[in-house]
């Protein structure tokens, strides 16, 4: 059985977001030493409890600080992002850390309604677009496996 961790990068009482992110990187290093297969980070916005608002950046920091463990998102909140941009970001990570990057997606907004409006910046974040976003993302990722994204 392969064991994995999903880390929300919780900010403990009396700690800063910077300390929470450092704890996530440190826990990933420990998990690698314990033989864990994968270490995923989450995406949450607009709160004072969770520090992980950019899983692609945190996954990169974890990959840079480890040697073997797979890392990635659990997951990127696709309604808040362009599928093309998500594919590009994870293609860069996959190029930097071959065979170690996973892309997980979700359909939540990742935060309160007022924060979602700011993240969307006038775009539609309707869940009815989610199946199309998933299909487009899969196409972009498949294309990046064959040739670099334009």
Describe the structure.
There is one protein chain. The longest helix has 17 residues, at 17-33. The protein has a domain at 55-72 and 85-96. Helix 2 links the parallel strand 2 (38-41) and strand 3 (70-73). The radius of gyration is 16 Å and the shape is globular. A 4-stranded parallel beta sheet has the order 1-2-3-5, covered by helices on one side. It contains 5 helices and 6 strands, in the order βαβαββαββαα. It is α/β, with parallel strands linked by helices. The N and C termini lie far apart (38 Å). The model has no long low-confidence stretch (mean pLDDT 90).
Short characterization:
The protein has 150 residues and is α/β, with parallel strands linked by helices. It has helices spanning 17-33, 55-65, 83-96, 113-120, 130-146; strands at residues 4-7, 38-41, 70-73, 76-77, 101-102, 105-106.
């Amino acid at each position: 059985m392969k064991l994995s961790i999903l880390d929300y990068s919780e900010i403990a009482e009396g700690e800063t977001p910077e300390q929470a992110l450092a704890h996530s990187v440190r826990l990933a290093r420990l998990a690698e030493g314990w033989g864990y297969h994968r270490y995923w980070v989450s995406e949450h916005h607009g709160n004072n409890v969770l520090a992980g608002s950019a899983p692609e950046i945190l996954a990169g920091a974890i990959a840079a600080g480890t040697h073997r463990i797979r890392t990635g998102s659990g997951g990127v909140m696709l309604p808040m992002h362009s599928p093309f941009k998500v594919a590009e970001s994870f293609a860069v990570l996959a190029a930097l850390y071959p065979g170690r990057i996973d892309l997980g997606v979700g359909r939540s907004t990742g935060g309160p309604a007022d924060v979602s409006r700011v993240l969307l910046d006038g775009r539609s974040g309707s869940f009815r677009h989610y199946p199309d976003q998933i299909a487009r993302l899969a196409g972009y990722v498949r294309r990046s496996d064959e040739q670099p994204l334009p």
